[in-house]
């Protein structure tokens, strides 16, 4: 019984033969996630855990962990964790500083990615496998254990397309937002999707409390297909309708992620295409400078980006420029590829104590 894999209802079901009180089950759950206990014995010995439950946990419970290969810090304060999984493959998580108050953790959901977005280094790895729930959560557990500020948000924007690993990522988000788990607000958990329409519609039907960010990058189908091959599987009109449904059900603006690429998608015609595509849909636009270590795609010049923001005024929608940090260590959006370069390699806390 992998204690890091189970939601609270699943843990209740697993322990039901021992007739524990609801409080006892929550104590076990909280020991694993809220308190980050490092072993089954520590969990089993938590206060108010009945002896029969403790004995069962010690006999049948397990708490596997990812191995930290290294921690690498960029000058802007972003820290990238590289993990080895006992199930195979390496994944990365990024600790993102929010002012001097808190951290958000960017987590991976797959080893590699099948979507092969042309500017994304993860996509060049190809798809290896989906991560299990515990592997996703252990990224947050280990980052949080070493953090000097609270972790108040999680974004599924690391390696992989989270909606192609729907069951595991949604279970992970449920544990992250559970008051007895990580106690992170649902609105502070975001899934980024390149546009897997069936999963978006399922997400909308199920009324999940987390946010979606939709990677569009161009509302001109030919351009979008050039950089996001998923356009050929789920064309833009299909994606737009799914976004419309999402926005209507949520009664909020849909977050449109727009990767800004020099000389490619920043002309007046690109702004006009966005206006036409999203007519009648309340949106907000996040502009993200492309980061492509291969050099094929370049970030916009200041003049180009300024002009495009002027063009975007026709949307009558909020437009923000999202900072993509940690470029020098391969921690920026689109650069996660289990690499080791740049910045400063940080020692483990045990080495500094």
Automatic annotation (TrEMBL):
<keyword id="KW-0408">Iron</keyword>
<keyword id="KW-0963">Cytoplasm</keyword>
<dbReference type="GO" id="GO:0070475">
    <property type="term" value="P:rRNA base methylation"/>
</dbReference>
<comment type="similarity">
    <text>Belongs to the radical SAM superfamily. RlmN family.</text>
</comment>
<keyword id="KW-1015">Disulfide bond</keyword>
<dbReference type="InterPro" id="IPR058240">
    <property type="entry name" value="rSAM_sf"/>
</dbReference>
<dbReference type="InterPro" id="IPR007197">
    <property type="entry name" value="rSAM"/>
</dbReference>
<dbReference type="GO" id="GO:0051539">
    <property type="term" value="F:4 iron, 4 sulfur cluster binding"/>
</dbReference>
<keyword id="KW-0004">4Fe-4S</keyword>
<dbReference type="GO" id="GO:0008173">
    <property type="term" value="F:RNA methyltransferase activity"/>
</dbReference>
<protein>
    <submittedName>
        <fullName>Ribosomal RNA large subunit methyltransferase N</fullName>
    </submittedName>
</protein>
<dbReference type="InterPro" id="IPR040072">
    <property type="entry name" value="Methyltransferase_A"/>
</dbReference>
<dbReference type="InterPro" id="IPR013785">
    <property type="entry name" value="Aldolase_TIM"/>
</dbReference>
<dbReference type="GO" id="GO:0046872">
    <property type="term" value="F:metal ion binding"/>
</dbReference>
<keyword id="KW-0949">S-adenosyl-L-methionine</keyword>
<keyword id="KW-0489">Methyltransferase</keyword>
<dbReference type="Pfam" id="PF04055">
    <property type="entry name" value="Radical_SAM"/>
</dbReference>
<dbReference type="GO" id="GO:0030488">
    <property type="term" value="P:tRNA methylation"/>
</dbReference>
<dbReference type="InterPro" id="IPR004383">
    <property type="entry name" value="rRNA_lsu_MTrfase_RlmN/Cfr"/>
</dbReference>
<feature type="domain" description="Radical SAM core">
    <location>
        <begin position="99"/>
        <end position="327"/>
    </location>
</feature>
<keyword id="KW-0411">Iron-sulfur</keyword>
<keyword id="KW-0479">Metal-binding</keyword>
<dbReference type="GO" id="GO:0005737">
    <property type="term" value="C:cytoplasm"/>
</dbReference>
<keyword id="KW-0808">Transferase</keyword>
């Amino acid at each position: 019984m992998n204690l890091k894999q189970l939601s609270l209802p699943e843990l209740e079901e697993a322990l039901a033969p021992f007739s524990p009180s609801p409080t006892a089950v929550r104590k076990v759950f909280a020991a694993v996630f809220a308190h980050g206990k490092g072993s089954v014995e520590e969990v089993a010995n938590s206060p108010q855990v009945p002896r029969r439950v403790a004995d069962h946990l010690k006999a049948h419970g397990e708490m596997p962990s990812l191995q930290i290969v290294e921690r690498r810090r960029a000058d802007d304060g972003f820290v990238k964790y590289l993990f080895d999984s006992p199930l195979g493959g390496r994944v990365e998580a990024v600790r993102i500083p929010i002012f001097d108050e808190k951290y958000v953790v960017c987590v991976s959901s797959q080893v590699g990615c099948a979507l092969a977005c042309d500017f994304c280094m993860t996509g060049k790895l190809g798809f290896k496998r989906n991560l299990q729930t515990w592997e996703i959560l252990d990224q947050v557990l280990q980052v949080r254990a070493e953090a000097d500020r609270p972790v108040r948000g999680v974004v599924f924007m690391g390696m992989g397309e989270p909606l192609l690993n729907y069951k595991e990522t949604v279970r992970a988000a449920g544990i992250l937002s559970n008051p007895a788990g990580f106690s992170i607000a649902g609105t502070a958990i975001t899934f980024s999707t390149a546009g897997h329409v069936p999963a978006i519609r399922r997400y909308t039907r199920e009324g999940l409390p987390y946010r979606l960010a939709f990677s569009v990058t161009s509302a001109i189908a030919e351009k979008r297909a050039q950089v996001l091959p998923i356009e050929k599987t789920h064309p833009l009109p299909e994606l737009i309708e799914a976004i419309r449904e999402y926005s209507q059900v949520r009664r909020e603006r849909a977050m449109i992620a727009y990767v800004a690429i020099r000389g490619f998608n920043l002309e007046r015609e690109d702004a006009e295409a966005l206006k036409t595509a999203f007519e009648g849909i309340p949106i907000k636009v996040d502009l993200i400078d492309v980061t492509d270590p291969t050099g094929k795609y370049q970030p916009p010049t200041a003049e180009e980006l300024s002009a495009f923001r002027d063009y975007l005024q026709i949307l009558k929608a909020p437009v923000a420029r999202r900072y993509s940090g940690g470029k020098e260590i391969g921690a920026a959006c689109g650069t996660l590829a289990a690499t080791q370069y740049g910045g400063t390699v940080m020692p483990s806390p045990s080495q500094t104590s």
